[in-house]
Write a structure and sequence with these properties.
alpha+beta; 5-stranded mixed β-sheet; 9 helices; 5 strands
Amino acid sequence: MSRSIPLMTKLFPHFYPDNKKHIPFELLEDIHHPSCLLTLYLDDGSLLLSKRFNHNKKEIQFTPHIAFYLQAFSRQQLKQLAIWMKARYDINVRTTGTPSGTGCYLKMTKVTDTFDILDLLEPYIAELREFTYKLSWETRLKNEIELYKQSHPDYTIRVSVPARPYSDEDIALLIKWKQQRVTDKEIARRLNRTYWSVVYKWQDVKNREA
């Protein structure tokens, strides 16, 4: 933020009280338009693509995530921002540790949450073509597939997609079978779900219990 513009000069004390970076939540109370989230994402966000290689099966699993690199702000402020984002846009993010800055940033850990924000910001793609790599999952995925088809031409590329929601009964059965040491592959068969869906859901259950 620059002091050279009159409006910025007026807002500067709200963002830098005592010359320390600060999120002025009092200014966010009346903000509901997704352009606010868009600005934050394009400025400090990234569309990440994690890759899991299975060299035995010659497969590559792509999973998209979104991160907001806001480690200049305190963990407490980021937690408060996560609550605000949930209330305003029904977007789920959580604090994640990092060795830089104040020690944490915001990240989406579920595929469904990633697609929720991309769906919300999709209307802006037509006007912001230069940011397609951040706003369009289809474009990003196509580019990544072309890249890995060159480096791993014999590999099959699989993509994590939002799965159908787990019911309370499904989750109860998952916990029960994990306690009985049933394998993820067998649990997937019993629940009629993919192996990776079970792996991701079990990790989610453990995170929520923690």
